[in-house]
Amino acid sequence: MAGAALYSGYLDAVEQAALVGDIRAVVAAAPLFSPLTPWGKPMSVRMTSAGKYGWYSDRKGYRYAPRHPDGIDWPPIPGRVLAIWRHLVSAERDPDCCLVNFYGAKARMGLHQDRDEADFRWPVLSISLGDDARFRIGGTTRGGSTESVWLRSGDVLVLGGEARLAYHGVDRIAPGTSTLLPNGGRINLTLRVVD
Ligand code: SIN
Ligand code: FE2
């Protein structure tokens, strides 16, 4: 799709392991939690964030929050993560949020648009670590045709232009396809400009 760029194998094994170390430190400071959907159901993906804002959801809806639900400040976005953004998106403007999504064996994410940000001219950059995930992407309206692609550990996906508001989600992960995380699962890092 126009505006979508997949950098397959962008990060080598050493870089991936270093990022996992960075994310462990983020999770130690700001623990993973299961947001509630606006319909009151806990999401199967566990989340936390780094940066100026964290992405949050509960019965009041989807939004960015200045603090973790436990009241702690979000930790800073790790330098290694910012370097990827600066290289592939912009050296002028850093992202405001690094959402950390953790997918256990059964987790999935339904089709949605990323539209809680103020300026859609900035792309969304997403980094995959750990087990493979079947990522699904469609058009900018719900219910149209979709296509799927397997995202593997070390892949980086940039959604800009027409793809910035494309519906997307994760059908499932494939447990046991990566040894990066000793207990399995998948981490996805999503970088976004919010303000
Ligand atoms: C998301 O859309 O928030 C996550 C996408 C992914 O896990 O690859
Ligand atoms: Fe998304």
How would you describe the overall organization of this protein?
This protein is α+β, with helices and mostly antiparallel strands. The chain has one domain: Alpha-ketoglutarate-dependent dioxygenase AlkB-like (Jelly Rolls). It has two helices and twelve strands, in the order E-H-E-E-E-H-E-E-E-E-E-E-E-E. The strands form three sheets. A six-stranded antiparallel sheet has the order 1-10-7-12-5-2, covered by helices on one side. The chain starts with a strand and ends with a strand. The mean pLDDT is 97.
What key attributes describe this structure?
195 residues, binds fe (ii) ion, 4-stranded antiparallel sheet, 2 helices, 34% strand, alpha+beta, Jelly Rolls, binds succinic acid, 12 strands, 6-stranded antiparallel sheet
Helix-strand blueprint:
Blueprint: E1 4-7, H1 13-29, E2 46-51, E3 54-58, E4 61-65, H2 79-88, E5 97-103, E6 109-112, E7 124-130, E8 132-137, E9 147-151, E10 156-159, E11 168-174, E12 186-192
Antiparallel strand pairs: 1-10, 2-5, 3-4, 5-12, 6-11, 7-10, 7-12, 8-9, 8-11
Bound molecules: succinic acid and fe (ii) ion.
